[in-house]
Specification:
345 residues; mainly alpha; 78% helix; 0% strand; disordered C terminus
Length: 345
C-alpha cells in the first residue's frame, strides 16, 4: 500500500511539473513577437477594466462557495461564511500538486463539520452532476447559436433549467427511505447482489445522501442558479480580457472558452496551472472560435485571466485560512470542540 501511495505521489509530482511546463509554454507563446501588439494594449487598460476582471474572479469564488453550501444544505447545515472560507482556502491550494485542495476540503468537512467521508464524496459528486446540467447546455447553445442572441439565451438558460429539473426528478425517485428501498429492489432485479448488500450497510446510506441532496428541489435549483451566474461571470471575465487585448469576441466564443477553462481546471489531475490555458485555447480552436487571430491569441486571453485570478485567489485563500484558524485546529485535535462553534443553522 505504501509503495502504491509513493508511486501515486511521484506521478502527481511529475504531472504538476508537466502542468508548469504547459504554463511556461503558454506564457512563451503569449509573449511572442506575434502577440506584441496585443500585449501593448495592456498598458492602455483602464482601471475599470482591471477592476472588473478582479471582481469577476471574486464573483466566481463567491458563487462556488455558495454552491458547496447549498448542495450540502439538505443533509447538513453550516454557515455560509464558514463554507466560503473553506472554498477560498481550497481554491488557493488548487494550484498545488498531490490533490491538496481535495484533501483539505475532506479534512475540514470531516473534522469541523462532522460530515462522514463517504457523504463528502457523494456531496462532491452531486455538485458535479448539477454543474454538468448547466455547463453542457451552455456549450451546446454557444456552438449552435450566435452568442448573445435570444435563441442563445433561451437554449442555454432553458436547457439548464430542463436538465436540472430532470436531475431533481430522477433523484427524487430514489431519495429518502422509500427511494432507498426502490433502488435496492431495482438492483436486486438486475442480480447485483453485492451492491445491494453494500447498500444495506451504513456506508451505503452515507453515499445515498448524495441522491437526497440532488432530490431537494430548492437546494438544487439554487445551485443551478448560482452555477449559471458563475459561468456567466466567467464569460464576462473572458470578454473583458479580450477587450483589454484588443480582440473581438462574441458571447458564444467567450462562453465556450470560459466553460472549457472551468471544466479543465476541475478535472485536471495535475493541478490548474497550464492545462486550463492550453486546453481552453485548444477547445476554442477545434470549435472554430479562435477567429482570425488564432489560438495563440485565445491563449493570451487565458493567461491574462489566470494572472488576475491568482491575485484574487491569493487574497481569498489567505482570508479563508485566517477565518478558519487552521493553525489552531490542523495540528491540535483538542480544539475540535472549539471548531464546532463555526457551524450555524
Amino acid at each position: 500500500m505504501k509503495t502504491s501511495t509513493g508511486w501515486r505521489r511521484v506521478a502527481q509530482g511529475v504531472g504538476f511539473i508537466i502542468g508548469l511546463g504547459l504554463l511556461v509554454w503558454c506564457i512563451s507563446v503569449a509573449l511572442s513577437e506575434k502577440n506584441r501588439e496585443q500585449l501593448l494594449q495592456l498598458l492602455d487598460a483602464s482601471v475599470w477594466q482591471v477592476s472588473l476582471l478582479l471582481a469577476c474572479s471574486a464573483g466566481t469564488m463567491m458563487f462556488n462557495g455558495l454552491i458547496f453550501w447549498v448542495v450540502l444544505y439538505p443533509v447538513k447545515r453550516t454557515s455560509v461564511l464558514h463554507m466560503s472560507a473553506v472554498n477560498g482556502a481550497a481554491t488557493l491550494l488548487s494550484y498545488t500538486p498531490f490533490k491538496l485542495a481535495l484533501a483539505f476540503r475532506v479534512l475540514v468537512h470531516q473534522r469541523i463539520d462532522k460530515v462522514p467521508v463517504l457523504t463528502i464524496g457523494a456531496w462532491f459528486a452531486a455538485i458535479g452532476v448539477l454543474a454538468v446540467a448547466v455547463v453542457a447546455p451552455a456549450v451546446v447553445a454557444s456552438l449552435a447559436f450566435g452568442g448573445g442572441t435570444p435563441a442563445w439565451w433561451g437554449a442555454w438558460v432553458g436547457g439548464a433549467v430542463v436538465c436540472t429539473a430532470l436531475c431533481i426528478g430522477l433523484a427524487a425517485i430514489f431519495s429518502g427511505d422509500t427511494g432507498w428501498v426502490r433502488l435496492k429492489r431495482m438492483l436486486t432485479a438486475t442480480r447485483l447482489g453485492l451492491i445491494v448488500r453494500w447498500l444495506d450497510t451504513e456506508h451505503g446510506r452515507r453515499v445515498h445522501a448524495g441522491v437526497d441532496m440532488i432530490a431537494h428541489a430548492r437546494a438544487s435549483s439554487a445551485a443551478g442558479g448560482f452555477r449559471i451566474a458563475d459561468i456567466l461571470v466567467q464569460a464576462v471575465r473572458v470578454r473583458v480580457a479580450a477587450e483589454i487585448l484588443g480582440l473581438e469576441m462574441d458571447w458564444g466564443a467567450a462562453m465556450v472558452i470560459a466553460s472549457s477553462y472551468f471544466v479543465i481546471g476541475i478535472l485536471s489531475p495535475i493541478g490548474m496551472l497550464g492545462p486550463r490555458e492550453a486546453g481552453a485555447a485548444g477547445v476554442a480552436s477545434i470549435a472554430g472560435m479562435s477567429g482570425a487571430e488564432g489560438a495563440e491569441s485565445i491563449m493570451l486571453v487565458s493567461v491574462l485571466v489566470s494572472a488576475t485570478e491568482a491575485i484574487v485567489n491569493l487574497a481569498g485563500g489567505g482570508l479563508g485560512a485566517a477565518y478558519l484558524r487552521i493553525d489552531r485546529w490542523l495540528f491540535n485535535r483538542s480544539t475540535d470542540t472549539e471548531s464546532e462553534s463555526l457551524q450555524a443553522d
